[in-house]
Amino acid sequence: MMSKNVYFQRTYGNGILCFALDLCALCDLVFFYMSNSQPLSIFDKLRSASNAFWFFIRAHLRLKRRGYSEVSPLETPFVPEAQHFNTKYQFTELGVQLFPRHWIRNLATLWILEQMLEGESWPTPLKVLEPCCQDFVRLPAIARYFLTQNTKPHITGVEIDAFVPLEGFHSRWDHAEYYRSITPAPSEYKAQDFFKFYEPADLIICFYPFISPAPALAWGLPAAVASPQGWVESFLKNLKPGGRVLVVHQGDWEEAEFDKARAGSSLQIIRRKALECPFFPSKHPMHATFYVGD
Ligand SMILES: C[S@@+](CC[C@H](N)C(=O)[O-])C[C@H]1O[C@@H](n2cnc3c(N)ncnc32)[C@H](O)[C@@H]1O
Question: By CB count within 10 A, which of 28, 48, 99, 124 is most buried?
Answer without folding.
Answer: 48
